[in-house]
Write a structure and sequence with these properties.
Elements: E1 2-4, H1 8-12, E2 18-24, E3 38-43, E4 46-51, E5 57-60, H2 83-90, H3 99-106, E6 118-121, E7 130-137, E8 143-150, E9 165-167, E10 176-178, E11 189-193, H4 196-202, E12 209-211, H5 215-219, E13 229-233, H6 238-253, E14 257-261, H7 270-282
Parallel strand pairs: 11-12, 11-13, 13-14
Antiparallel strand pairs: 1-2, 2-3, 3-4, 4-5, 6-7, 7-8, 7-10, 8-9
Helix pairs in contact: 4-7
Length: 284
Protein backbone atom coordinates (compact mmCIF):
# COMPACT_ATOMS: atom_id res chain seq x y z
CA UNK A 1 0.00 0.00 0.00
CA UNK A 2 1.46 3.39 -1.00
CA UNK A 3 0.23 6.89 -0.22
CA UNK A 4 1.34 10.43 -0.89
CA UNK A 5 3.19 11.95 2.06
CA UNK A 6 1.45 15.14 3.18
CA UNK A 7 4.04 16.17 5.77
CA UNK A 8 4.42 19.98 5.34
CA UNK A 9 8.21 19.71 5.44
CA UNK A 10 8.16 17.12 2.69
CA UNK A 11 5.77 19.15 0.56
CA UNK A 12 7.95 22.20 1.01
CA UNK A 13 10.86 20.18 -0.32
CA UNK A 14 9.00 19.38 -3.52
CA UNK A 15 6.23 16.99 -2.48
CA UNK A 16 7.88 13.97 -4.09
CA UNK A 17 8.13 11.66 -1.08
CA UNK A 18 6.06 8.48 -1.20
CA UNK A 19 5.33 6.34 1.84
CA UNK A 20 5.21 2.58 1.35
CA UNK A 21 3.93 0.11 3.96
CA UNK A 22 4.45 -3.64 3.90
CA UNK A 23 3.48 -6.32 6.45
CA UNK A 24 5.41 -9.21 7.93
CA UNK A 25 6.26 -11.18 11.12
CA UNK A 26 7.05 -9.23 14.31
CA UNK A 27 10.53 -9.89 15.82
CA UNK A 28 8.97 -9.97 19.31
CA UNK A 29 5.69 -11.89 19.00
CA UNK A 30 6.39 -13.70 15.70
CA UNK A 31 3.81 -16.40 14.91
CA UNK A 32 5.43 -17.81 11.80
CA UNK A 33 6.22 -16.91 8.21
CA UNK A 34 2.59 -16.04 7.41
CA UNK A 35 2.31 -13.59 10.32
CA UNK A 36 1.41 -10.05 9.17
CA UNK A 37 1.16 -8.17 12.48
CA UNK A 38 4.24 -5.99 11.82
CA UNK A 39 3.81 -2.89 9.64
CA UNK A 40 7.03 -1.67 7.99
CA UNK A 41 6.60 1.91 6.74
CA UNK A 42 9.36 3.42 4.59
CA UNK A 43 9.94 6.72 2.82
CA UNK A 44 13.00 8.84 2.02
CA UNK A 45 13.41 9.68 5.70
CA UNK A 46 13.88 6.08 6.81
CA UNK A 47 11.89 3.11 8.09
CA UNK A 48 9.49 2.71 11.01
CA UNK A 49 8.44 -0.73 12.28
CA UNK A 50 5.25 -1.11 14.32
CA UNK A 51 3.52 -4.29 15.51
CA UNK A 52 -0.26 -4.00 15.69
CA UNK A 53 -0.41 -6.95 18.11
CA UNK A 54 2.25 -6.37 20.80
CA UNK A 55 3.15 -2.70 20.18
CA UNK A 56 6.81 -3.25 19.24
CA UNK A 57 8.12 -0.03 17.62
CA UNK A 58 11.46 0.80 16.05
CA UNK A 59 12.87 3.50 13.75
CA UNK A 60 15.76 2.77 11.38
CA UNK A 61 18.06 4.58 8.94
CA UNK A 62 16.77 8.10 9.43
CA UNK A 63 18.83 10.79 7.70
CA UNK A 64 18.91 14.09 9.50
CA UNK A 65 18.08 16.71 6.90
CA UNK A 66 17.22 20.36 7.52
CA UNK A 67 14.11 20.16 5.31
CA UNK A 68 12.69 16.89 6.66
CA UNK A 69 12.40 16.18 10.37
CA UNK A 70 11.47 12.55 11.13
CA UNK A 71 8.71 11.84 13.60
CA UNK A 72 10.40 10.31 16.69
CA UNK A 73 9.56 6.69 17.39
CA UNK A 74 9.88 4.79 20.64
CA UNK A 75 12.37 1.94 20.19
CA UNK A 76 11.71 -1.22 22.19
CA UNK A 77 14.05 -3.97 21.06
CA UNK A 78 12.96 -7.40 22.35
CA UNK A 79 14.53 -8.40 25.64
CA UNK A 80 16.27 -11.63 26.51
CA UNK A 81 14.84 -12.18 30.00
CA UNK A 82 14.53 -9.26 32.44
CA UNK A 83 14.13 -8.42 36.12
CA UNK A 84 10.37 -8.51 35.59
CA UNK A 85 10.50 -11.99 34.07
CA UNK A 86 12.74 -13.22 36.87
CA UNK A 87 10.40 -11.78 39.53
CA UNK A 88 7.39 -13.54 38.00
CA UNK A 89 9.27 -16.82 37.67
CA UNK A 90 10.32 -16.69 41.32
CA UNK A 91 6.62 -16.56 42.29
CA UNK A 92 5.84 -19.83 40.52
CA UNK A 93 5.40 -23.19 42.21
CA UNK A 94 5.92 -26.83 41.17
CA UNK A 95 2.80 -28.23 39.50
CA UNK A 96 2.09 -31.03 41.94
CA UNK A 97 -0.85 -30.29 44.25
CA UNK A 98 -1.96 -27.15 42.39
CA UNK A 99 -4.80 -26.10 40.09
CA UNK A 100 -2.23 -26.53 37.30
CA UNK A 101 -2.03 -30.25 38.00
CA UNK A 102 -5.85 -30.53 37.99
CA UNK A 103 -6.02 -28.74 34.62
CA UNK A 104 -3.34 -30.87 32.95
CA UNK A 105 -4.77 -34.15 34.19
CA UNK A 106 -8.26 -33.05 33.14
CA UNK A 107 -6.82 -32.47 29.65
CA UNK A 108 -5.26 -35.94 29.52
CA UNK A 109 -1.69 -34.69 30.00
CA UNK A 110 1.19 -36.35 31.80
CA UNK A 111 2.84 -34.17 34.43
CA UNK A 112 6.45 -33.30 33.56
CA UNK A 113 9.25 -33.88 36.09
CA UNK A 114 9.68 -31.46 38.98
CA UNK A 115 12.70 -29.82 37.34
CA UNK A 116 10.64 -28.98 34.25
CA UNK A 117 10.38 -25.43 32.90
CA UNK A 118 6.59 -25.63 33.35
CA UNK A 119 5.34 -24.31 36.69
CA UNK A 120 2.16 -23.00 38.29
CA UNK A 121 1.61 -19.28 38.92
CA UNK A 122 -0.99 -18.55 41.63
CA UNK A 123 -3.69 -16.05 40.75
CA UNK A 124 -4.01 -12.55 42.15
CA UNK A 125 -6.37 -9.59 42.19
CA UNK A 126 -5.81 -8.84 38.48
CA UNK A 127 -4.94 -12.24 36.97
CA UNK A 128 -6.33 -15.78 37.28
CA UNK A 129 -4.15 -18.77 38.16
CA UNK A 130 -1.94 -19.82 35.26
CA UNK A 131 0.42 -22.37 33.91
CA UNK A 132 3.70 -20.48 33.57
CA UNK A 133 6.39 -21.83 31.24
CA UNK A 134 9.92 -20.52 31.02
CA UNK A 135 10.96 -20.21 27.38
CA UNK A 136 14.68 -20.72 26.83
CA UNK A 137 16.95 -20.39 23.81
CA UNK A 138 16.98 -23.72 21.98
CA UNK A 139 20.77 -23.74 21.63
CA UNK A 140 22.09 -22.08 24.78
CA UNK A 141 19.24 -22.86 27.23
CA UNK A 142 19.38 -19.26 28.52
CA UNK A 143 15.92 -17.95 29.52
CA UNK A 144 14.32 -15.40 27.19
CA UNK A 145 10.62 -15.04 28.06
CA UNK A 146 7.58 -16.56 29.79
CA UNK A 147 4.47 -18.20 28.36
CA UNK A 148 1.17 -18.19 30.27
CA UNK A 149 -1.98 -20.30 30.06
CA UNK A 150 -4.70 -18.71 32.17
CA UNK A 151 -6.90 -21.20 34.02
CA UNK A 152 -10.34 -21.39 35.57
CA UNK A 153 -10.31 -21.25 39.37
CA UNK A 154 -11.17 -24.96 39.68
CA UNK A 155 -8.73 -26.07 36.99
CA UNK A 156 -11.45 -27.66 34.85
CA UNK A 157 -10.69 -25.48 31.86
CA UNK A 158 -9.09 -22.25 30.73
CA UNK A 159 -10.10 -18.93 32.24
CA UNK A 160 -12.35 -18.13 29.28
CA UNK A 161 -10.90 -14.70 28.54
CA UNK A 162 -9.98 -13.18 25.21
CA UNK A 163 -6.30 -14.09 25.59
CA UNK A 164 -5.96 -17.24 27.69
CA UNK A 165 -2.58 -18.03 26.10
CA UNK A 166 -0.01 -15.28 25.90
CA UNK A 167 3.68 -14.42 26.08
CA UNK A 168 5.34 -11.86 28.32
CA UNK A 169 5.28 -8.62 26.33
CA UNK A 170 8.51 -7.10 25.06
CA UNK A 171 10.61 -10.25 25.21
CA UNK A 172 12.12 -12.40 22.47
CA UNK A 173 10.22 -15.54 21.57
CA UNK A 174 12.02 -16.44 18.36
CA UNK A 175 14.44 -19.34 18.71
CA UNK A 176 12.94 -20.44 22.01
CA UNK A 177 11.55 -23.69 23.40
CA UNK A 178 9.86 -24.84 26.59
CA UNK A 179 12.06 -27.54 28.11
CA UNK A 180 9.33 -29.70 29.63
CA UNK A 181 12.04 -32.25 30.37
CA UNK A 182 15.48 -30.93 31.42
CA UNK A 183 18.60 -31.23 29.28
CA UNK A 184 19.94 -33.95 31.58
CA UNK A 185 17.09 -36.23 30.46
CA UNK A 186 17.84 -35.67 26.77
CA UNK A 187 20.34 -38.32 25.72
CA UNK A 188 19.81 -40.28 22.50
CA UNK A 189 16.47 -38.86 21.37
CA UNK A 190 14.10 -35.90 21.72
CA UNK A 191 10.49 -35.21 20.75
CA UNK A 192 8.92 -31.88 19.77
CA UNK A 193 5.40 -30.46 19.64
CA UNK A 194 4.17 -26.91 19.20
CA UNK A 195 2.00 -26.47 22.30
CA UNK A 196 2.49 -27.47 25.93
CA UNK A 197 -0.67 -29.59 26.08
CA UNK A 198 0.06 -31.36 22.80
CA UNK A 199 3.53 -32.16 24.12
CA UNK A 200 2.33 -33.44 27.48
CA UNK A 201 -0.33 -35.69 25.93
CA UNK A 202 2.20 -36.92 23.36
CA UNK A 203 4.48 -37.72 26.31
CA UNK A 204 2.32 -40.83 26.72
CA UNK A 205 4.12 -42.09 23.63
CA UNK A 206 7.59 -40.52 23.88
CA UNK A 207 9.73 -38.64 26.39
CA UNK A 208 11.68 -36.42 26.75
CA UNK A 209 9.63 -33.86 24.86
CA UNK A 210 9.80 -30.07 24.45
CA UNK A 211 7.27 -27.50 23.21
CA UNK A 212 8.33 -24.98 20.56
CA UNK A 213 5.54 -22.47 21.43
CA UNK A 214 4.40 -22.08 17.81
CA UNK A 215 4.91 -23.18 14.21
CA UNK A 216 7.54 -20.51 13.55
CA UNK A 217 9.85 -21.87 16.23
CA UNK A 218 9.14 -25.44 15.13
CA UNK A 219 10.16 -24.63 11.55
CA UNK A 220 13.40 -22.99 12.71
CA UNK A 221 14.32 -25.52 15.43
CA UNK A 222 18.09 -26.04 15.10
CA UNK A 223 20.02 -29.29 14.94
CA UNK A 224 21.44 -29.92 18.42
CA UNK A 225 24.63 -31.83 19.09
CA UNK A 226 24.40 -35.15 20.90
CA UNK A 227 20.84 -35.93 19.76
CA UNK A 228 20.62 -38.70 17.13
CA UNK A 229 16.85 -39.14 16.88
CA UNK A 230 14.01 -36.57 16.65
CA UNK A 231 10.27 -37.27 16.85
CA UNK A 232 8.01 -34.44 15.69
CA UNK A 233 4.34 -34.39 16.74
CA UNK A 234 2.81 -32.08 14.16
CA UNK A 235 -0.40 -30.08 14.23
CA UNK A 236 -2.43 -31.19 11.21
CA UNK A 237 -2.98 -27.78 9.67
CA UNK A 238 -1.14 -25.96 6.90
CA UNK A 239 1.25 -24.05 9.17
CA UNK A 240 1.85 -27.01 11.46
CA UNK A 241 2.66 -29.47 8.68
CA UNK A 242 4.90 -27.00 6.87
CA UNK A 243 6.82 -26.33 10.09
CA UNK A 244 7.21 -30.02 10.91
CA UNK A 245 8.50 -30.80 7.42
CA UNK A 246 11.00 -27.93 7.47
CA UNK A 247 12.30 -29.08 10.84
CA UNK A 248 12.51 -32.72 9.74
CA UNK A 249 14.36 -31.84 6.54
CA UNK A 250 16.96 -29.83 8.45
CA UNK A 251 17.64 -32.73 10.84
CA UNK A 252 17.67 -35.28 8.01
CA UNK A 253 20.27 -33.26 6.11
CA UNK A 254 22.41 -33.32 9.26
CA UNK A 255 22.28 -37.13 9.22
CA UNK A 256 19.82 -37.54 12.09
CA UNK A 257 16.95 -40.00 12.29
CA UNK A 258 13.59 -38.18 12.16
CA UNK A 259 9.97 -39.32 12.41
CA UNK A 260 6.96 -37.02 11.94
CA UNK A 261 3.61 -38.00 13.44
CA UNK A 262 0.26 -36.37 12.74
CA UNK A 263 -3.43 -37.06 13.18
CA UNK A 264 -5.17 -38.34 10.02
CA UNK A 265 -7.90 -35.77 10.70
CA UNK A 266 -7.23 -32.23 9.45
CA UNK A 267 -7.32 -29.66 12.23
CA UNK A 268 -6.27 -32.15 14.91
CA UNK A 269 -2.94 -32.99 16.48
CA UNK A 270 -1.60 -36.30 17.73
CA UNK A 271 -2.70 -35.40 21.24
CA UNK A 272 -6.35 -35.62 20.14
CA UNK A 273 -5.81 -39.24 19.12
CA UNK A 274 -4.02 -40.12 22.35
CA UNK A 275 -6.79 -38.47 24.40
CA UNK A 276 -9.41 -40.62 22.66
CA UNK A 277 -7.37 -43.78 23.25
CA UNK A 278 -6.97 -42.84 26.91
CA UNK A 279 -10.69 -42.16 27.27
CA UNK A 280 -11.56 -45.59 25.81
CA UNK A 281 -9.16 -47.33 28.20
CA UNK A 282 -10.75 -45.59 31.18
CA UNK A 283 -14.31 -46.47 30.11
CA UNK A 284 -15.55 -49.48 32.14
Amino acid sequence: MASRNTDPAVLAAGGAAVTKTTRGPCPVCDRGSRDRALAVTADERGVVLYCHRCGFTKAENFERRPDIVPVPAHSTAPLDWSDRAEAIWRRTLPLHGTVGQIYLEHRGCILPPVDSDLHFLPGGAKFPPSLCARVTDARSATPITLHFTRLAADGRGKAGGEHDKLLLAGHRKRGGVIRLWPDTDVTYGLALAEGVETALVSARAFTPIWATVDAGNMAAFPVLSGIDCLAVYADHDQAGMRAAIQCAQRWNKAGREVAVYRSPVAGEDVADILRRIGARKETP
